[in-house]
Known about the structure:
2 copies of one chain form a homodimer.
Chain A: H1 2-10, H2 25-48, E1 56-59, E2 65-68, E3 72-77, E4 82-84, H3 87-94, E5 101-105, H4 108-116, E6 128-129, E7 154-162, E8 167-175, E9 180-188, H5 190-204, E10 212-216, H6 219-226, H7 229-235, H8 249-258, E11 264-268, H9 276-289, H10 298-307
Parallel strand pairs in A: 7-10, 10-11
Antiparallel strand pairs in A: 2-6, 3-4, 3-5, 7-8, 8-9
Helix pairs in contact in A: 5-8
Chain A binds a DNA/RNA duplex through β2, α3, β5, β7 and α5.
Amino acid sequence: MHKLFNRLFCLPPPCFLGYRAPETGGNMLQLIRYCFNILHRLHIYFKKQPNFDTQMFLYIPFFCSYSLTMKFYAVARGRRTGIFTSWPDAERQVKGFAGARFKSFKTKQEALAFLEDPSYTNSASSTKNIGFAPPKKKSGHRQPADYEYPENAVMVYTDGGAIGNPGPGGYGVVFETGESFSGGFNLTTNNRMELLAVIVALEALEGETRPICLHSDSRYVVNGITKNWAKAWKRRGWKKSDGTPAMNPDLWQRLLDLLPDLDIRFIWVKGHAGNPLNEACDHLANSTARMPGLPDDTGYLKSRKNSA
Amino acid sequence: MHKLFNRLFCLPPPCFLGYRAPETGGNMLQLIRYCFNILHRLHIYFKKQPNFDTQMFLYIPFFCSYSLTMKFYAVARGRRTGIFTSWPDAERQVKGFAGARFKSFKTKQEALAFLEDPSYTNSASSTKNIGFAPPKKKSGHRQPADYEYPENAVMVYTDGGAIGNPGPGGYGVVFETGESFSGGFNLTTNNRMELLAVIVALEALEGETRPICLHSDSRYVVNGITKNWAKAWKRRGWKKSDGTPAMNPDLWQRLLDLLPDLDIRFIWVKGHAGNPLNEACDHLANSTARMPGLPDDTGYLKSRKNSA
RNA sequence: AGACACCUUUUCCG
DNA sequence: CGGAAAAGGTGTCT
Lengths: 308, 308
């Protein structure tokens, strides 16, 4: 305990880091770095040995982080080439210019490297994270059929989209048998359509006794059910873990009501990855969204009015 | 940007918070509180205005939290009776001892009460959650509020005090979410501290769009705003109605500057009347006032010199 | 910060 | 029509 404290005091206090005269953002960065440094050390210590004489609890989610997010736009081929620090400037050199080559970087060094060799690719991000280290995603591609499909299962694919988001949107549902449903609204969001696609699919399957394999490319929808996000929100009165209101409660409620009587597996599939049935849904949703004379999505309009 | 920095420097640097001699866990808590205060203020600022000259990113979800949970083990019947601060010690007195009576508490007072009367039960949870704690689900009994609290209101409690008045003083601010701020000076007055508590609370809430319910037990502060005393003094050049100078114009000016952008209700609560949040402020203010090495209240010293 | 989805613009190639 | 790249954004969650 005392040893930890002594180590903490080895850090120079903020006033020694030179931001008594705050002229530049760099000083601000040092202030933040100092605070994060202390919290980070405490966090590591508590995780390693959570119970010492004075028990202390410190909760820092892993996605706490800070970084300097200046962007450098390297234009290798354009009206004028070079490095620009704002997108409007860079866009002017590039937009409508045949054969333009450009890319953004977080450091000037990288941008210069790109200018010399336009095949240069991004290096690692310079973000500093405190808290639990993000789980390393080493495995490149997700395996195809590692999933056990039950015998006699009903295969359904769903997709939804909104042009402009928010904007006119549509949903598509395709069964392996070839049956399909679709619909759309003149103003809605992508996630509402993904959700509605699932609802329509399950409503069409009401009374089905065989197991159902429902495929969607939306993490929002799949996790909402498989990780029980939706049930947690409902229990808290449609509030998220941070206390702010969860979105689309009307649709989630409809979906939850459909679940008990069916044997469903929600399966996430990567979008635009060649799955023919997923592509079919996508096409269906898209073409519906582009149709004239679509009705209002009253649920979306209502939620929008409430938040405004 | 500069304004933010000036506000950050109003926080006493860590060396003023008394953890130069880290003998107890309480000092560690203050170190953490200091870091969280700075980060929280930066977070609010960035959220409000994410793009200034030096683009910077800081992500801290508000449910980051920390607390100090020292445990006291009261052994009423065992090999040796008394209070122990670690479970292995307490276990030795109790394990295999016929008819042992023991219980853990969070404060020494409660443990002592249990020793005298083993039927003593835990009082209301005294866990201090300071930081960005999730909103507490306090379903239960609210005091009969004759006041109409708006929906979604931010609840803030403030208190200030000076030992000896004038003398060393401190202020405390507690949000219903558990967040808290505190500070102190080596020579100041009770009203200056009450006033500063309110200022610190509102500065922390800069940019907040929800209605704010600010509770103080100082008639001076509440009436100063609700009955427009302060505005009247300012209009007359900081003179009271009888022509004599109004006190603490520096702080009143700071407070008036904060009002226009916020939707605040000033609510007077009776001090020391059992309101737990008010008590928490009181405690915070008092303990800060008793800390060694507090800085000067330059505003008070100046006004004293002028009048002398 | 990360993840998934949904888009808008520009360019290139079939 | 189909494929690719680059930049900008929103809708949602942890």
